[in-house]
Design brief:
The complex is a heterodimer of chains A (97) and B (552).
Chain A lengths: L1 H6 L6 H23 L5 H21 L7 H27 L1
Helix pairs in contact in A: 2-3
Chain B lengths: L25 H4 L4 H29 L10 H20 L2 H15 L7 H23 L15 H4 L4 H28 L12 H33 L12 H35 L6 H14 L15 H29 L8 H24 L1 H7 L3 H31 L5 H28 L13 H31 L55
Classes of the chains: A mainly alpha (97), B mainly alpha (552).
The structure holds protoporphyrin IX containing FE and copper (II) ion (CU).
Chain lengths: 97, 552
């Protein structure tokens, strides 16, 4: 079952790649701009959200995960979830200090 | 096959390699055979362990009397750092997965090798490169690192010793760990023999699998942390050092986000070995197979949620301290599940107290002490009192050395006949195990008391009131080094002059006991079809190599 999936190559068009690249650049400039704006407690939250969107783009399109077997998505999901939990727990220190 | 040993036409992996040349060092260094790689790891790791142990004995010698005895304070600082770095990064973290995981994971799964044999060899080389970097860091200008194995900021940014190179070595070693983990996860998913469903896998496989996940997910965190420290040291970028505008507590967070899960990298494989040895010598199927398997995964996951229990006195928020203390108590549960199931397995078993089993008994006792004193450290009130004292030193030696270290020896004594085809001296091995137990408690139990009395860790000097206990501990270190030498002697003389081992000397039933000792190059002439539960001893009478080598 797994075999056939890997062999059928999924072509992503150049325009998609280009689009993703441009959006990554755009998101980066948003990060830089936002860093200058005073958002108080939300600064970090916004920066992390933008970073998350960027990673999602890279992982799905550039790293092809969107077109892979579900098992890889499960694996990545577990790792991502662990990371999320680690971040949240860390904030119990920084927010309440 | 006359007596269950190797048949004439059946060459073992020791006689036949994967390289063109069958003999010589190159047939090992370039071999992609998981068994040869496992043995090479064993040799390298044994050398480092011995070195680390000698450093430990030297420290104990310094501590035999107050004041300067055989070394000055700075030397003591570098020696405990080196001892820690060697024991953690070169011995106990790679330890069981790299040696016994490599050798036995494919065998227990009924596979011919791991999923990526070349990657496996690469990770061994990376391990060697990392070890070489540690060595180099000792001799180049600046001098050996003196920060302790935890590399805490701000000292590690400010000291002039060779911190950058030494921690870069840890970075490199991390890659070896990640690649091994990747290899094992893939192997478990793709190379199980027909009929081997997930719940027919031996428990050593389960625990190695859970460990592999931690290796993959947690190790990058220490990699990043190390790179940040190097950046800070080389270019003065302010990340952790408060003088540069950084946050030293952030370093501790990042360090322990890896290093706490890393303690489960150390202990989980050991728990897997225990789950193999107890059924074999109690001649009884394991009690609570699924509970043990699932508790490995539970430990792997909950292990990520407790790291800040190392930081209760570092000024983290009270809310965080309470949450992490609570979570720490939770993570004790899956470990306890395992201990109860092991004990229940022995109940009404027909126990055969061979050396591996005796080591496991030591383990249960020592690990339980280590685990329970961990709760003393996990509780906020008591931790404030004993933090950074000998109590901690005693605690982590009980879990790491008494836990994983003991099982490393147990695994050696259990699988040595399978790996080499030779048998060691059983009487001496039993004596070893007993002496180890005495030596261990003489060496480390006094440290609990001294810690409780207030003796701080990482000091080369102490107040006179501690001297009696310090001397007891030092005598323990002499006993310990004798035990270690005896083990090495017993195994080496078994290897060189030992009698031929039977293919199944203990009457085990997992797949590695279905083949000859030492195993042939590709393990199985035919990939086995798995029909039994992993610890179903009723199959013993029908096995090719039944009990005591009565072959069919
Ligand atoms: C012959 C065996 C051993 C002896 C005599 C020994 C002795 C010691 C001593 C005296 C210290 C320093 C205590 C202090 O001043 O704070 C120490 C620290 C330590 N030991 Fe051992 N030890 C032995 C084996 C092991 C093993 C097998 C491991 C790990 C698996 C280990 C891991 C550590 C670690 C991580 C430290 C802390 C280093 C630091 O403070 O940075 N030791 N040991
Ligand atoms: Cu911990």
């Amino acid at each position: 079952m797994q075999e056939h999936h890997n062999n059928e190559t999924h072509q992503i068009s150049y325009s998609t790649y280009l689009l993703v690249w441009v959006s990554l650049l755009a998101l980066t400039s948003i990060t830089v701009t936002v860093a200058g704006v005073h958002l108080g407690d939300y600064t970090l939250f916004v920066a992390l959200m933008i970073a998350a969107i960027k990673s999602a783009l890279v992982i799905n399109i550039f790293m092809h995960i969107k077109f892979e077997d579900p098992i890889f998505k499960v694996f990545l999901g577990i790792s991502g979830f662990t990371l999320l939990v680690i971040f949240s727990l860390t904030f119990f220190d920084y927010i309440y200090r | 096959m006359a007596n269950g040993t190797i048949a004439i036409d059946d060459k073992s992996f020791l006689e036949e390699g994967t390289t063109k040349k069958a003999t010589g060092i190159a047939s090992w260094l370039f071999s992609t055979d998981h068994k040869r790689i496992g043995l090479m790891y064993l040799i390298a790791i044994a050398i480092f362990f011995f070195t680390g142990a000698i450093l430990g004995v030297l420290m104990r010698l310094e501590l035999i009397a107050p004041g300067r005895t055989i070394m000055d304070a700075q030397t003591y600082n570098t020696i405990f750092t080196l001892h820690g770095v060697i024991m953690i990064f070169l011995f106990i973290i790679p330890g069981i997965p790299a040696v016994f995981g490599n050798f036995f994971l494919p065998l227990q799964l009924g596979a011919k090798d791991v999923a990526f044999p070349r990657l496996n060899l690469l990770s061994f080389w990376i391990y060697l490169i990392g070890a070489a970097l540690v060595l180099i860091s000792l001799f180049v200008e600046g001098g050996p690192i003196d920060t302790g194995w935890t590399f805490y900021i701000p000292y590690s940014v400010r000291t002039t010793t060779n911190v950058s190179l030494a921690i870069f070595a840890a970075f490199v070693l991390g890659f070896s760990s990640i690649l091994t983990g990747l290899n094992f996860v893939t192997t478990v998913h793709r190379l199980r023999a027909p009929g081997m469903t997930y719940f027919k896998m031996p428990l050593f496989v389960w625990s190695t699998y859970a460990t592999a996940w931690i290796q993959i997910i947690a190790t990058p965190v220490i990699g990043i942390t190390i790179l940040l420290v190097v950046l800070e040291r080389l270019f003065g970028v302010g990340i952790f050092d408060p003088a540069l505008g950084g946050d030293p507590v952030l370093f501790q967070h990042m360090f322990w986000i890896y290093s706490h899960p890393a303690v489960y990298i150390m202990i989980l494989p050991a728990m897997g070995v225990v789950s193999e040895i107890i059924p074999t010598f109690a001649r009884r199927t394991i009690f609570g197979y699924r509970a043990i398997a699932m508790s490995s995964l539970a430990i792997a996951f909950i292990g990520y949620l407790v790291w800040a229990h190392h930081m209760f006195t570092s000024g983290i928020s009270e809310t965080a301290a309470i949450i992490f203390s609570f979570l720490t108590f939770i993570v004790a549960l899956p470990s306890a599940i395992k201990v109860f199931n092991w004990v229940a397995t022995m109940y009404k078993g027909s126990i055969d107290p061979q050396p591996p089993f005796l080591w496991v008994m030591s383990f249960i006792f020592l690990f339980s002490i280590g685990g329970l004193t961990g709760l003393v450290l996990g509780a906020l009130v008591t931790d404030v009192h004993v933090h950074d004292t000998y109590f901690v030193v005693a605690h982590f030696h009980y879990v790491m050395f008494g836990g994983t270290g003991t099982i490393f020896f147990a695994a050696l004594y259990y699988w040595f006949p399978k790996m080499t085809g030779k048998m060691y001296n059983l009487k001496l091995a039993k004596f070893n195990a007993a002496l180890f137990f005495v030596a261990f408690n003489t060496l480390y139990f006094p440290k609990f008391i001294m810690g409780y009395m207030g003796m701080p860790r990482r000091y080369y000097d102490y107040l006179p009131e501690f001297q009696n206990l310090q001397v007891v501990s030092t005598v323990g270190s002499w006993l310990m080094i004798i035990v270690i030498c005896l083990i090495i002697y017993n195994l080496l003389s078994g290897l060189l002059n030992g009698s031929k081992a039977e293919a199944n000397p203990w009457g085990g039933v997992t797949l590695e006991w279905h083949i000859a000792s030492p195993p042939p190059l590709e393990n199985f002439h035919e990939i086995p079809e798995v029909t039994h539960e992993p610890y179903d001893f009723s199959q013993l009478k029908n096995m090719k190599y039944g009990l005591k080598g009565e072959s069919k």
